[in-house]
Amino acid sequence: MFKKIDRESSYSVKYDLRIDKFDTEDVIPLWVADMDLASPKCITDRLTNRASHPIYGYTIYPDEYYQSIQHWMKSRFDWHIDRDWIVPCYGVVPSINFAISAYTSEGDSIIVQTPLYPPFVSSIRHKHRVVLDNVLIYKDGKYSIDFDDFAIKAKEAKMFMLCSPHNPTSRAWDEDELEKIIDICIAEDVIILSDEIHSDIVYKKLHHSIGSFEKIQDRCIILNAPSKTFNIAGLNTSYAIIPNRRKRKIYILEQDKSGITNGNPFGIEAIIGAYREGHIWLDNLKLHLQSNIDYVNKTLITNNIPIKSLTTEATFLMWLDCRDMKLSQQEIVEFFVYKARLGLNDGKSFGEAGDGFMRLNIGTSKEILEEAMDRLCKAYEELS
Ligand SMILES: Cc1ncc(COP(=O)(O)O)c(C=O)c1O
After folding, report:
1. pLDDT at 188
2. Looking at ligand 1, which residue's alpha carbon is closest to its atom 2?
3. Could you tell me which residues are beta bridge partners of residue 138?
4. Domains with residue ranges and CATH for the chain
5. pTM score
6. Which pLDDT score is estimated for 258?
């Protein structure tokens, strides 16, 4: 089901940008956050069927589109959302940008938690807002929130950009952690913009959408998409969930100003197929990913490689603590690229707090992962 597939010549960022990213094509690419795995048949069938109709003109968002999102939220997270709350968009990162413009002004402060998926910080800076970094605490191999620091920063912030689950640390926030954040944000009148694009891939825990806490519903915006879960990032299909009517109007105005109008016919077909019929495939995907995570952990331990992998609570991205290698960040990056011939993300691209870390994408086939781990073991043997 999750077999190796040749991605060469499909214009994939992951493979075709290797030279730009790593200066060499001789790496197994385990970086950008999409998977090397085929999307489920419930999507490919609908896309094939739609492609067979030779007119690809302007396309509406049909009732089925909204119903499928409502169905997904209810069945996966037991969260009822009204149809009106859903605002379709072309991508979560564009929505982050619209939300910043919609709810803050130049010079306003926005809280983030690094190490962090880089577009959060860059979007804030591009829009001339101020980044307030509530750096995550890293202790005993686990990340947690510095609530005291958060409470101080909330006093001057207009917005908090939450990444839930969190990329790159793979934390799936607990209910009580979210409660604490919510209470501070309510007390200090801070809006929460919650990016929940990784919410479907959470292992052994439950994902709690920020929007499912009733007390914050009037001041939160949730961004989500089927793109990570079903490997359809190239279809540029996402949505915002905004329960408060006034907040929704302000956001829609901002999107409209940027010329965002109709959806693309393939993205719409894909989301309907995925959210209606993708449940079993997703459950199997999670088993496959968990087995990949276990395989990496076992390889590191049995080969005495001094890289600590944290508990991966969510996502197909493992956050590797390489500090015991006793190398500088530059040397760690060079070790992976030139010695192990593996293309991971440099931890420092997620902010200073990522110093000493690397991000490994395990959303791939067993065959590719085994080859990658073989390369890592050989390279480490040569190093020591
Ligand atoms: C937390 C997070 N948000 C957003 C995105 C990208 O979303 P989109 O492709 O819909 O803009 C990613 C991709 O890696 C991500 O990890």
Report:
1. 98
2. 197
3. 143
4. 13-39+280-383 (3.90.1150.10), 43-277 (3.40.640.10)
5. 0.97
6. 92
